[in-house]
TrEMBL record, chains A, B:
The keyword Chaperone does not apply. SUPFAM superfamilies: Winged helix' DNA-binding domain (SSF46785). This is HTH-type transcriptional regulator. The keyword Metal-binding does not apply. Residues 108-135 form a coiled coil. It comes from Virgibacillus chiguensis. One of its GO terms (molecular function) is DNA-binding transcription factor activity. Residues 24-75 form the HTH marR-type domain. Keywords: Coiled coil, DNA-binding, Transcription, Transcription regulation. InterPro entries: ArsR-like_HTH, HTH-GbsR_regulator, HTH_MarR-typ, MJ1563, WH-like_DNA-bd_sf, WH_DNA-bd_sf. Belongs to the GbsR family. The lineage of its organism: Bacteria, Bacillati, Bacillota, Bacilli, Bacillales.
Length: 161, 161
DNA sequence: TTTTTTGTTCAGTTTTAACTGTATAAAAAA
DNA sequence: TTTTTTATACAGTTAAAACTGAACAAAAAA
């Protein structure tokens, strides 16, 4: 009689928390999958997940890999069970914060490198054509590199908790 | 003879910086548009932008609105010019940091509220059905709310520069 | 006022990302 | 080893987001 009511709540939690997870740059399915594992609170197989979310096993396989790569879920061993089991990290804040900051720092750093390389190219050109006016572009590049540096600093700072 | 070389550099800067801007959750076009305005370093009309990026004026209109809503570009008035002019904020770091953190804090806060509401619903149900075992779900909800709180705290902290 | 210019709305199209199912590979059991 | 079970690669499909163009609305000039 009241089972439906609690199931309804659980559904709402699943739905709502999926939205939160999506904010970290995960796809809807990845987010739903993580939430499912997190709420299940015990290791699940690919078949369990496919069944529960009504999606293909292939989708589970690729999604779980993305989650595992970001250390949001981990593979679990259980004697006697052949299928691979996965469970969500319970320390939500730590897991997502680390994963998210890592993504940012890495990406920003890579972009910064690209601009420093462009800066070198500019210096080359200037050496060969002393008459060229590149001051404006040079200044812009400086600003951009500084911008990346500042971003990197902020995220590294946050990373220290 | 060397004009192409410097134009090539400018193109690369445009391309590369667009990638950086995309990281802040803007669409490719919005990002490209911002970068164009930023590098142009002077107010531009919708027609200028459409022409320069080879896209429709409609796309410019909607994109510029998004950018303006996030305070990444501002409308500029110039006597004698009928068309509306826009220019990018030059303080990259400040502009993007504020816009980005605001988006996060707002979204996290809204999600948190949704969960607090669910918590209230749970309490209601418990009152009417004292026999129900909802402890596990309740604890999960607590964790989730805490998670949102922590995220909010972090972003608010960063916001203080 | 009417005419001209500029900006926006919205339905439809194109492009990109997400997802499926078959076929293959890898791993465990027989 | 062969057989059976489970996971992944990949081509193709479906779903979602980005983008366009015609028609409309708003604002300025005549």
């Amino acid at each position: 009689m009241n089972k439906p009511q609690t199931e309804n709540i659980n559904n709402k939690i699943l739905l709502e928390f999926t939205k939160t997870i999506e904010m970290f740059g995960l796809t809807p399915l990845e987010s739903r999958l993580f939430t499912y594992l997190y709420l299940a609170d015990k290791p699940m197989t690919l078949d369990d997940m496919a069944e529960a979310l009504g999606k293909s096993k292939t989708a589970m396989s690729t999604s779980i890999r993305t989650l595992a790569d970001q250390n949001l879920v981990t593979r679990v061993w259980k004697k006697g069970v052949r299928k691979s089991l996965y469970r969500a990290h319970t320390q939500l804040f730590k897991a997502f914060m680390i994963s998210y900051l890592n993504k940012w720092v890495e990406a920003v750093n890579q972009q910064k490198s690209a601009f420093i390389e462009l800066e070198q190219m500019m210096k080359e050109i200037k050496r060969n054509h002393t008459n060229l006016k590149l001051k404006a572009t040079e200044e812009r590049l400086q600003e951009i590199i500084q911008f990346h540096q500042k971003m990197e600093d902020v995220f590294r700072e946050v990373k220290k908790d």
